[in-house]
Specification:
Elements (H helix, E strand, L loop, with lengths): L5 H5 L2 H31 L3 H31 L13 H14 L8 H27 L3 H29 L1 H7 L8
Length: about 190
């Protein structure tokens, strides 16, 4: 039976505690990330930095909401939900950060070492989250639980990619757009 897990039927308290503790840890990771992204957004001096940190903050907020919903369902029923809350689509928001940056880019654009350092720290948050979720996905047997953690790991990977793109955009805007065939500033 797909998604079969004996703890779903027996209500094994130990397995339930492991799951609840993992979700608590996940919420803590996401809250730390969200707080960092909010503070970094408020300190950012470049538009791309502010926009990327806001995108990441909203993504973490969505993760917290989804994790909290699963936590409460699991806590009340003892069963991992077969239809956990779905991820909100953020791909377009990520792409518009760079499209808008190209439109706003001018000769006054400067390299902001503080924004880059904050983005590099953000990359570490995302790597940590991706690793945690990937490890959870490997450790669990319930198909629905495995899919949930796999999805979160996938989302964290994409956040990491967005951060790496932001760093490249701040360091070398022309190279960033040339690499992605968006064109160059020369036309």
């Amino acid at each position: 039976m797909p998604g079969y897990d004996s703890s779903r039927l027996t209500g094994d308290r130990t397995m339930l505690d492991v799951r609840l503790n993992a979700l608590k840890r996940a919420m803590q990771l996401e809250k730390e990330g969200m707080a960092y992204y909010q503070a970094s957004r408020d300190k950012a001096t470049s538009e791309i930095g502010r926009n990327m940190f806001e995108y990441l903050r909203k993504s973490e907020e969505g993760h917290i909401r989804r994790i909290r919903e699963i936590y409460h369902t699991l806590e009340q029923s003892g069963v991992w939900p077969e239809h956990p809350p779905v991820a909100e689509e953020t791909g377009d928001a990520y792409k518009t950060i760079f499209t808008n940056a190209l439109a706003e880019l001018d000769e006054k654009q400067h390299l902001d070492a503080d924004d880059i350092a904050a983005l590099e720290q953000a990359a570490e948050f995302e790597r940590k989250g991706e690793n945690f979720y990937a490890e959870r996905a490997e450790a669990v047997t319930d198909l629905f639980e495995k899919n949930f953690y796999t999805q979160l790991a996938h989302e964290e990977f994409h956040h990491l990619k967005a951060i790496q793109d932001s760093i490249l955009m701040l360091k070398d805007p022309q190279g960033f757009f040339a690499d992605r065939e968006f064109g160059t500033l020369a036309g």
